[in-house]
Each structure stands twice: as structure tokens, then as C-alpha cells.
Amino acid sequence: MTTTSPKSSPRALIVGLGISGISTAIALRKAGWTPVIIEKAATRRGGGYFIGMFGSGRIAADRLGILKGLHNRIPSPSVNYEVDRSGRRRPGMGFADLPNGPWMMMRGDVERAAFDALPEDVEVRYATVPEAIEQDGEGVTVTLRNTADHSTHSERFDLVVGADGLRSTVRRLAFGAPEKYLHRLNYMIAAFALPEDLPGLTRGEGAILVEPGRSFWVFPFADRPSTVLFSYRTDDVDAEFATPAARRIREVYGPEPLGEMMEAAVRVLESSDEYLFDSVEQARLDRWHRGRVVLVGDAAWCPTLYSGMGATSGIAGADLLGAMLRRHPGDLEQALTSWEQKLRPYVDAHQKSGVSNRVGFTPTTRAERVRRALLMRFRRVVFGSPALYRLIARSKQMRLRNEDLAAA
Ligand SMILES: Cc1cc2nc3c(=O)[nH]c(=O)nc-3n(C[C@H](O)[C@H](O)[C@H](O)COP(=O)(O)OP(=O)(O)OC[C@H]3O[C@@H](n4cnc5c(N)ncnc54)[C@H](O)[C@@H]3O)c2cc1C
């Protein structure tokens, strides 16, 4: 069966009901488009892990009506410790201590707020994936498969948006094999939410344990238990997936005893199936659109968790896409080209920081550990001086994290 799109309002297929996909649907709708979202999973995904939302994301989220559903879960005061396995601790610095720092929240908070801001008449089809994408001068024909009943049908759209994450099917169908675009940083992560605070920490207290090639982070919130992150270096990403996550964490962080805090966290992982265990990879493409197919969010650029900008850039990129479609009505190629031109320097900078910040998360070599120690010392000096603090807040990197991309 082939359905033809009405000519009055151009139709967009958005693949992926994550933060980027929902934000794009809202932005396109504001630009006069009719979005249809398909999602591989049978239901929405909630919960998850800590994310920090920087200024660019908050400005875009405000414009899209998402920000009103969010609140900053930052503890006050913000207390973080550098810890070791024996329980020794000294003052440390957390993500939220950054000048012009992010709002702290859960991935699920953003997903929920975005979903609540989605106009009710936007069609969402679950258990649906794209199987083939064919473009011609007039539009795109997409073969869609319902994974519940295995039926397929073809449908016409004016635009297809791949917001289907790092391992994007849209990217594979329209741009080519993943090996061409995915760059492994050779790190693995396990991230999940805790049902209660860890031993040795009270509500709102965070902790960081850094050892050569492996680290453990406790991200604190004011009003709910923390989330944790294990991050470690690997030489063989494929082999990592041969072992269940919790067992692999015990192997990598052993054989010595984990200590009270990590032990409690691994026990949560052992008894849960709500966690993320994945390799850290960036998508790197020279162009994010081909004809009438465009990629956004992790599918397009995935700066990685080490940049702290994935969700922020997903929302900001979606908002900018809507702005460009409004600025160039009836000229899709011009809108997408202008969108890429404006977005490219922003994304490049955050991808670079994703690679360099990795040293702050999980230093591996001796030189990296020294670099991290010097960085921490530098931050302590900066944060103790209001003048230096203001200077860093105005630095290029901080400006880029807080830029209003779609400002007229
Ligand atoms: C531990 C961790 C910490 C992070 N911290 C931060 C932070 O501090 N700040 C920040 O801004 N970002 C952070 N990020 C990154 C951020 O979470 C992601 O960049 C962001 O959530 C990506 O959203 P997305 O919508 O682009 O992709 P995803 O969240 O991957 O969504 C893709 C959606 O597409 C669906 N899908 C996949 N394939 C198909 C298909 N074939 N058909 C249909 N649907 C499909 C998926 O089921 C999913 O719902 C962090 C990430 C991690 C892992």
C-alpha cells in the first residue's frame, strides 16, 4: 500500500523517539510540517542515567516548550569527593561545578518533558522500523516494517529525519555502512540509576574514583538517588559484548576487592536489566543530509558522554532545523545546507571536547593521569577566584556550550 502525502503541509518521517527525534518533531511542526514518528521499541524509554543540560539545550528546549517540564536537580551545596577503594576521600569537583554549568537531570526527565510538549495529534507508531529508503525528485519512498506483526508497506514523505541514535538504520540505508562513519574511542561504559544512595554517601553527595584505565562516577541529585557510571579503556570493543555487563565490570575492576561503594553499585547492576552497557563512539560525517534525508543527534554526530553535549546538541540541532525550514520555505536543499553550515563549527568543537575530556573521565597512561591531576589543581584555583571563574565562564568552550544556535 502506498500513501501519498497531502501537498498542503509537507510530511516528514522522523525515525526515533529519543530526545532528538521528539525535539525535531516539535520543531518541524512549528515550521508548518506534518511529522510522523516511528520508534523501534514497543513503548517509550524512561529513566536512564545522569545528563547535564547546557545553555544551548535549555534555550532551544524553552523555544520548543520542553523546558517548562524540566527542573534542575542540582544539590545545594554541590559536594563531590575523589575517593579510593579503601574509603579514603578528599574534596573533588563535579560536573555541575563548571562555570556556567549545566542543569543536572536524568535522560528520562528530558525524554518525558519533550514527549509532554509534543502536540497530541503528532502520530507516533511504535514497533516500526524503516527497511528501505528511495529518493526521487519529488519525495522519498520509505518501506516500513511493523516488527510486531512483520507486515511491511511503503509510504511517501517529503523529508526523512534519522534520529535513531548512534547505530542509525537511516544512516546505513541512506549514507552507507557504519564502519565508514563510526569512530570508536576504545572505551566502554556502564551507566544506570540507583534505587537508593550508596553506602558512605548522603543524598546530594557525589564521588569519583579514578584508577589507570578505569573510573567510577557517582552523579548526585538533590531530590532522588544518584546515577553511576563505570568507564574503562579496552583494546577489543567487540569482545566486550561477549560477557554480561555486571560480570565484565567485576573482571575489569578486579581482582582486588571493589570497596564498599563500588560493590554496592555492582550489586544493583547484577539485579537490574535497566542499564546501558556500550562502547563510546562518535559518528563523523562530512555532510548530514543527502537530498531529502537528514540525520540529527547521535545518529549524525554523537559527541559522546565525555563531551556532556549529546542531549544538548540534539535539542539545539532540532530547534535550528525548524528555524532553517521556516527561513527557507519551499527550498529544502537551501534550508538543510544552511542548517549544516550553522551547526558544523558547534558540533566539531563538541566532538573535539568529547575526545579531549575523556582524559578527565578516565585517564589511562601516566601522562594522562598527570594531566588530569594538573587540571583538577587548576580548577580548584580557578573556582577559588571569582575573577578567574568569570573568565572561564566567558571562554570559547563555555560560550559554545551555551550558544543560542537558532537566534535570528
Ligand atoms: C552515560 C551517559 C551520559 C551522558 N551525559 C550527557 C550529558 O551530561 N549531557 C548531554 O547533553 N548528553 C549526555 N549524554 C548523551 C545523550 O544522552 C545522548 O546524546 C542523547 O540522549 C541522544 O539522543 P538521540 O535522540 O539522538 O538518540 P537515542 O537516545 O539513541 O534515541 C534514538 C531512538 O531511536 C530508536 N531507534 C533506533 N533504531 C531505530 C530504528 N531502526 N527504527 C526506529 N527507531 C529506532 C531508539 O529505540 C531510540 O528511541 C550522555 C550519554 C550517556 C550514555
- Per CATH, the class of the largest domain reads Alpha Beta
Q: So what's the overall shape?
A: globular
Uncertain residue segments = 1-6
Span between N and C termini?
42 Å
Please state the CA-atom Rg, rounded to the nearest Å: 22 Å
Kindly state the number of beta strands: 19
How much of the sequence is in beta strands? 15-25%
**Quick check: average pLDDT?**
93
DSSP helix fraction: 25-40%
Total of DSSP H or I helical runs spanning 4+ residues: 13
Name of the CATH architecture of the largest domain: 3-Layer(bba) Sandwich
Give me the CATH fold name of the largest domain: FAD/NAD(P)-binding domain
CATH superfamily of the largest domain, by name, is: FAD/NAD(P)-binding domain
User: Spatial order of the strands in the main sheet?
Assistant: 6-5-14-15-16-13-17
Structural class: alpha/beta
The distinct ligands, each listed once, are: flavin-adenine dinucleotide
Major β-sheet annotation: 7 strands, mixed
Domains (count): 2
Characterization of the model:
The chain is of the alpha/beta class. The chain has two domains: 2-67 and 108-181 and 283-357, FAD/NAD(P)-binding domain, CATH 3.50.50.60; 74-104 and 183-280, 2-Layer Sandwich (D-Amino Acid Oxidase, Chain A, domain 2), CATH 3.30.9. It has 13 helices and 19 strands. It has helices spanning 19-30, 55-63, 107-117, 169-175, 237-240, 245-253, 259-270, 310-327, 332-356, 358-361, 366-383, 386-393, 396-401, and strands at residues 2-3, 11-15, 34-38, 50-53, 79-83, 89-91, 103-106, 123-125, 128-135, 140-146, 152-157, 159-162, 182-193, 205-211, 214-219, 227-233, 276-283, 289-290, 293-295. It has a seven-stranded mixed beta sheet with strand order 6-5-14-15-16-13-17, covered by helices on one side. Helix 1 (19-30) packs parallel to helix 3. Bound molecules: flavin-adenine dinucleotide. Flavin-adenine dinucleotide binds at residues 15-21, 38-41, 45, 49, 51-52, 107, 129, 163-165, 169, 189, 191, 229, 276, 297-298, 305, 308-312, 314.
